[in-house]
Amino acid sequence: MGTGHADSDFTLLADGFVSLEGPTMSADGALFFSDLRAGGIHRLSPDGRVEVVVPDRPDVGGTCLHAQGGLVATGADVSHVAAGRTRLLLSLGDLPPGRGGEAYAFNDLAADGEGSIYVGVLRRDERGNPEPGELVRVTGERACEVVYDDVHPNGVALSPDGTVLYLADTFRRRLLVFSFDEGVTPVRTGVISTEDVPGLPDGIAVDAEGCIWVAFYRGGCVARFAPDGNLRARLAMPALKPLSLCLGAGGHDDLFVVTGRSAPGAEDTGSVYRTTVGVTAAPVHPARV
Fold it and tell me: Which string of DSSP letters, residue by residue, matches the chain?
């Protein structure tokens, strides 16, 4: 895939939603995604059918598969949801005090090769304005450790070999880079600026070549960055607010992007799009907590 801006043919797969997040592919080619504003988690089957698999759960900013079946979902807590049952993994009350204001929600998440969960904590001041939050590692039920505590966390993803973790720092328009070389807990080792791309970096995914795909909220595009930070491609989207994305499972070279409404009451809706990008996904691990 070449460097720079490119137009791409996106196919609309589903619409009529409000603000979509948390796209996750299952091995059978189904796509799970949440509606952050309207609540619930949906499943889009390969034949185009959409069904609600987790009703009513509000504020889900991220999902991932669990090795025992079902999904891990964020929101007011981090929970394993399977077969109609919900198992609490981490609550806001389990967090240590942060340097920012009130912790009010958990956001995007990803699991490493051992099944530990890395999840962003969102914080706000007394007026509701965003404050720096944390990236935490969920080590067991109701147990976590702080990996990094000065970030506005969004997308989380790992390199193909699992030695590097990337985290979108949305309001600072950058990706933070962490290395696992020092031990179990990753250590920040670098930064990738996204300031050359319009909009704010939101959800992310990593492909088999190690490049990072980023959805740009209010930027109307998605972009692909090399591990060294070079911008490899920018794809214009038929929506102003791409919120998150994932790559297809099973060796397919599809990119799935979920979006939000451009404005309250606008005619466009939260939607799911697909395009072909010529590269497959890096391994995406299930949680085991």
Answer: --SSEEE--PEEEEEEESBEEEEEE-TTS-EEEEETTT--EEEE-TTS-EEEEE-S------EEEBTTSSEEE-SSEEEEEETTEEEEEEEGGGSPP-SSSEEEEEEEEEE-TT--EEEEEEEE-TTS-EEEEEEEEEEETTEEEEEEEEE-EEEEEE-TTSSEEEEEEGGGTEEEEEE-TTSSS-EEEEEEE-TTSSSEEEEEEEBTTS-EEEEEETTTEEEEE-TTS-EEEEEE-SSSEEEEEEEPSTT--EEEEEEE-SSTT-S--EEEEEEE-S--BPP-BPB--
Model pTM score: 0.96
Residue 112, domain extent: 5-276
At 100, the pLDDT band (50, 70, 90 cuts) reads confident
Question: 41 in a domain, yes or no?
Answer: yes
For the domain that residue 60 is a member of, what is the CATH number? 2.120.10.30
